[in-house]
Amino acid sequence: MKTWRWIYCIALLVSMLIFHAVDGYCTEKTPEQLVHDFYQWYFAKNSGSDMAERRDEIHKYVARMLVDDVRKDTSGIYYFTKVGSYGAWWDGAATEVKKAVEIGGGVFMVPVEFVLERERRNVVALVKRYGGALKIFKVMDVYPFM
């Protein structure tokens, strides 16, 4: 009888672990979480000539079409932070992601503020679903509106 009790307890424990793992795996990120995770990754990986835009991991966060366009760009502007040649100065910036606003058609506007000492830079990331996953498909500078 004790053997059956142990088997039952082990089976129950395994099933609980499996359901918990599946539940965690299926939990979808919010647009804010996606943008926050992207910029955490971006600033960690963007160093010198090894720009984050050139890494394949970027596809986890950003729509393929945008990545292709950014990689072709020769303007000298860091697309995801909207800063020029002094972009490396912003690598230590704190990223403050604000509350997303759904604007229709499954598109979310996510305001982002980069803070580095007394300097501030603001952008808006546009996010929508591609192939079942949320991705950033555009980043806009808000400087003209401030």
Measured on Cα atoms, how large is the radius of gyration?
20 Å
Overall number of strands = 5
Helix count equals 3
CATH architecture: Roll
| Pattern of helices and strands | HHHEEEEE
What is the CATH first-level class name?
Answer: Alpha Beta
Largest sheet: 5 strands, antiparallel
Write the layout of secondary structure elements.
Elements: H1 2-26, H2 31-45, H3 64-72, E1 94-97, E2 101-104, E3 107-116, E4 119-130, E5 133-141
Antiparallel strand pairs: 1-3, 2-3, 3-4, 4-5
Folded structure, characterized:
The protein is elongated and about 70 Å long. The chain has a single domain (29-145), classed as Roll (Nuclear Transport Factor 2, Chain: A). Strands 1, 2, 3, 4 and 5 form a five-stranded antiparallel sheet that branches. By secondary structure, the protein is of the alpha+beta class. Helices cover 34% and strands 27% of the residues. The protein has three helices and five strands. The longest helix is centred in the first third of the chain and has 25 residues, at 2-26.
